Amino acid sequence: TSLLPTTLSQLESDQEFQSLSKKIAAVGIEGMTKEERAKRRRALEDLGVPNFMQFVSDNCNEVEVKVLKGRQLFRKEPKILQLNIGLYCNQACTHCHVESSPLRKEE
Length: 107
What we know:
The chain has 107 residues and is mostly helical. Helices cover 48% and strands 0% of the residues.
């Protein structure tokens, strides 16, 4: 089972998180005060979302962690748009992130 629907529902109902998200969309992360960034971080922690650098430290090797520390990351333009329109697939790949297969009939 996926935690995504529950997490998204919690984010949608969290007024503080929604307020900060609107401000980020308007002014960007650089336009937020230190306290606003801290509130955003706390809201994510309350939902069980790990700190990015902690996640990196837990999941990457030492060299990768050193490279990332102190660097600002920027999002690139998307190059791929993937639409999952159902779980039925004529293949059953072990790496499939939605676990599609010929046996899955649900929508």
